[in-house]
Amino acid sequence: MSTLSEQIKKLPDTPGVYFFKDAHGTILYIGKATSLRDRVRSYFSKDILATRGPLIAQMLELAAKVDYEKTDSVLEALILEAELIRKHKPKHNTDLKDDKSWNYVVITKEEYPKVLFVRERVLEPEKYAYFFGPFTNGGQLKEGMKIIRKIFPFRDTCVPNSGKPCFNAQIGLCPGVCSGVVSQKEYAKNIKNLALFFQGKKKSLVGKLEREMKALAKKELFEKANAVKKTIFALSHIQDVSLLKRNNHLAVKPPSEMRIECYDVAHISGAFTVGVMTVVENGEAKKSEYRKFKIKETKGVNDTAHLGEMLSRRLEHSEWPFPKMIIVDGSLAQKNTAERLLEKYGYKIPVLGVVKDEHHRPRNIIGDQKLARLHEKEILLGNSEAHRFAIAYHKKLRGRI
Fold it and tell me: What is the CA radius of gyration of the chain?
């Protein structure tokens, strides 16, 4: 551990990707960082078992060396991390995450290719011209794609040559595939550049664009040359403030004195199904940290499966603070579902269930009775808030249809 401490001191305070390796040089885990030094240092806090779970704690016991690769931006660290996880498949990355929950960016095989997000469970590589990933964090990927799309506008849903510019074309995020202002050849060039960026070939890409800019200027096509110049500038000065903010949450946070997360589901006979998470921290509802989930995978009336889908998606967000207790609305079936998922992801967090009567009033609390007695007020507050929040979200969603 002292050797690792010395290595950490030498890490740069820059964005990049880090590698934990064992004594034989085998890569155990790959991660990305805004600051390599601060991020790696955070793994050696006293409460790492509580905040990151036993799989990470086990990885640290095996770790003998920390290596790194610097990047020019957090966005490039995000892309490099995905490429290296795909290449090396480190055990402690793959064990921490269900294969079905990996995120990918794909480019379709069409005259005017679409750029889309897909999950591992629906990924069909043979159907795509390119696919990139796995990305470990869906939220960060979406933020990153907002930045990338400003540099390389692309089509996602609009109909080519329909004659009317889509909303994204109107705000500069689609190059005008829909309105026919961009040729297939020009769009293909843009997609190729996007692919080079996702392949981590920014240096080659910038060189290619500089040659293109000079060729256009030589032909006195100054407007086009200036557009390429702007792309080169954007690549060299990536503005990833949103990612910096999001990535700052990745540093390991000490758990609050008592953070309780409460979950509930709402639907009408299995239709318009939604789930919510509410938070009670130190006895007070923390509404800024409430979260909504549209239930997409499980159809029909199956509250335990709905809960499982919601919790799986929540547990992907390692950047959110983790609770000291989880409360589910329901009986033993819901409690068991939550406990199985937590075990699968490597977390030891107590789960309690609030059982309701026929009028949907709390009848009793199942689970650790000592915790139930100590925190009954907070448990019932969080459960009541979850029910209220779920019904409100369900009604809002239903009202849109």
Answer: 24
- Tell me the residue type at 316: E
Q: CATH homologous superfamily for 259-400? A: UvrC, RNAse H endonuclease domain (3.30.420.340)
Mean pLDDT of all residues in 31-50: 84
Q: Is 138 helix (H, G, I), strand (E, B) or coil?
A: helix
CATH of the domain spanning 2-95, picked from 3.10.180.10, 3.40.50.300, 3.40.1440.10, 3.40.720.10: 3.40.1440.10
Residue with tokens 């690549």, as numbered in its chain: 235
Indicate whether 25 pLDDT > 80: yes
pLDDT digits (tens, 9 = 90+) for 344-394: 777 788 999 999 988 888 999 999 999 999 999 999 999 999 999 999 998
Residue 63 CA to residue 4 CA, distance in Å, equals 8
Query: CA 151 → CA 227, 231, 236, 299, distances in Å?
Result: 11, 6, 11, 38
E runs forming strands in 345-385? 351-356, 362-366
pLDDT in the model for residue 254: 42
Strands 362-366 and 284-285, sheet pairing:
unpaired
- Residue 93, Cβ neighbours under 10 Å: how many? 22
**Cβ contacts of residue 295 below 8 Å, gap of 6+?**
265, 267, 273, 274, 275, 306, 309, 310
| Per-domain boundaries in the chain | 2-95, 97-194, 259-400
